Amino acid sequence: MDQHNSSRVILRLRNISKSFDGVAALSSVDFELLDGEVHALVGENGAGKSTLVKTITGALTPDSGTVEFDSQTVSNHSPAFAKTLGIAAIYQQPALFPELGVTENISLGIEKPRTWRRINWNASRFRAAELLRQIGSRIDPDSEVQSLSMPEQQLVEIARAVGAKARVLIMDEPTASLAEEETQNLYRVIDSLKKDGVAIIYISHRLEELEVVADRVTVLRDGAIVDTRMMSAVSREELIRLMVGRDLSLVFPKRTATIGKAVLETKGLSCRLNGVQNVDLMVHAGEIVGLAGLVGAGRTQLARTIFGLEPADLGEIRLNGKTVDIVSPRTAIELGIAYLPEDRRRHGVVLEMPIDANVTLASLDKLQKGITFDRTKEREIAATYVKRFAIKTPALFSPVTTLSGGNQQKVALSRWLETRPLLLILDEPTQGIDVGAKAEIHALIGELAAQGTAIVLISSDLPEVLGMSDRVVVMRNGSIARTFDRSEATQQDVMAVALGHQQMVA
Amino acid sequence: MKAQTFVNKHKREFSLTLSYIVLLVLVALFAPSFFQLANLRDLALNNAGVLIVACGMTLVILTGEIDISVGSQFAVCTYAAGLLAKNGMSTIALICMVILIGAAMGAVSGILVPRLGIPSIVATLALMVIWRDMLRWGSEGAWVQGLPQNFQWFGLGQTYGEVLVVAIAIGVFAAIAWCLQNLGIGRFFYAVGSDSEAARLAGIDSRSVKLNAFLIMGALTGLAALLNAIRFSIVPGNAGLGLELKAIAAVVVGGTAITGGRGTVAGTLVGVALLGTIGPALTFVGINPFWEKAIQGAIIIAAVVSDVAMTRFSTRQRFRLAN
């Protein structure tokens, strides 16, 4: 018999295998999930995490093996059946109806309204408000979902899952778009869900947060389970080793920065449209300046203003000592500024376009040959980057949609390197990317700085900012709150400043 | 390897061409008289204008927009051609003038849609009515009659004139196909249609790219109207009625995504041929021509369904790759 109520197995996968076109995505996977535990699922991109999740939610039927829920074998599994069992999943991108209100979204997730039955809006609204309160959120149930921020939308999804009496909750990279403060709030929500006996499968690339949130961790590699361990009994280095199957240095590339003259200098830069206020920022050739801060602190907005997407209405920007007027991305690119945007899938690359066209998109002028452009040279350039960054693709003309996240990011980066920028602004360049590709991108950033590129690195991943940057600039409410030197910056201090507790920092 | 690459890249165009060949074989079996020279000549002439307009429409749809005012633009341009010819304008000046009028009307759509952010289907629906009613008001519903002899076929005589019309249509097609592949603007059409924000972040001014698409579309409509006007001695007031539907149908059947970002004019060419052949072919096979529209509709639906199926198939393959 079970000693604890909490150690009952709620979900068990036995010997699950699934292959696509003869390629095994999962092979003989055994997995068990206990009531009230947070079970982390880690592995590089392509390790089979999403296939495993889809098997649990019934979106995929395995080739062999069984899914057991509450000691009952589930036959004819489907997403609808998963819902009746109480299995809910929250994905990186919230799957909500943006044009509908919070109440509608929560109600639709809990029960399907009958086609000809009148909806009791008062009761629905009350229930939505109650659920939101329960998870500690103060979102107005009447607000439209598209007006909410990403973390708020995630909370709506959690409220919906709680309302649907979920017993198994799958969270796929829930903190990818959250800043520290919201992450802390999420942890509280997870804690209270745990107390109610909800079992949580937690997928994340951020190993440091697993130490905080997870009870057990299962490592997947190449479609097979490598090991399941107690989180408290495994170190970060060991986890990484289990994931990649090789020793991978946690250390960021050591650089001897030879910092040159000032490339970018802003004075009193402000933009009313996006809330950037009175920013004085200086970036030198060969220097990496990290921009830290909470989501909404104005880091992306500052980048967008410098890149001419939301041009400044006050203050000045100097490039190589000359005052410039940046009114559009076009002018920014011509001046030698490159911006790798945050939302890689939507904005970093043109998904339907082939790799070669994506790589040259921002530098077509340079391929000009008479009135046309040189297509042979285009292919050569793309081939160079594919080789240099080890981009995994069947062909140069493959649309970028066919690539994995890390490889898409490498294509996006190639596009900007091909413009030979003086100043490169990277906005969350490693978000949602697996450990191996992350290290490659870090090495690449270091290499670029060594070649004399001035780099602004925006990242919510504190170890990344601290490990990569020569200086760390912390933003808060659209302004610069404080600048740290590499030697004096610590995670605690940076976070304290980002949260507005200046006095805590010496 | 190289040939296989080519086939892979143009799967849609190939499967469409294949269905067109099947159609031709069927017609050859059941109504060989369809392939009489006179009939083929009529077919080519009637569809030359449609092809030119559909090529322009391909550009507009590639950028993720649509222009349903082309039928009315066509009417205005045809009428203007007739009027100018009657007033004795020299041929060269007249050609430039009509194309300019078309481009100007295209520019109106091209400014309204991206600059003011009006959805193109609404903006061009309004323009469709406005252009057509302006024409009705200006012409008081009268047809232009008694066009000068030297205007017909540009004074080249019917045989050379016909060859010229078809040659121009093919020339326009080839030019656009080449430009889409080899000019920067061609690349930009695809990028903007695929995701205009992503294009903006790559430094592409999506508004001016869209303006260009509408402008070229208008100019090509002007050209098509001109080539139509020189065929007859009168210009009717209802010219170009339903032309927008023909053009859009050909583009969609040709495999261009209605949401933008994907497609080729080669597909559009086959689309025009397929839809243009089916009607007359029915008559030859002996099926009641009343069925023509219904069958065209069925073809459009079949094209869209197969497009969706193909996309799904490749998404599934993608999923396999990603996992």
Structure in words:
The complex is a heterodimer of chains A (506) and B (323). Chain A contains 17 helices and 22 strands. Chain A is 34% helix and 25% strand. Chain A folds into 3 domains: 5-244, 3-Layer(aba) Sandwich (Rossmann fold), CATH 3.40.50; 259-336 and 421-506, 3-Layer(aba) Sandwich (Rossmann fold), CATH 3.40.50; 350-419, no CATH class. Chain A is of the alpha/beta class and 506 residues long. With 323 residues, chain B is an all-alpha fold. Chain B has one domain: ABC transporter involved in vitamin B12 uptake, BtuC (Orthogonal Bundle), CATH 1.10.3470. Helices cover 76% and strands 0% of the residues of chain B. The longest helix of chain B has 32 residues, at 291-322. Classes of the chains: A alpha/beta (506), B mainly alpha (323). At the A-B interface, helix 10, helix 11 and strand 18 of A face helix 8, helix 9 and helix 13 of B.
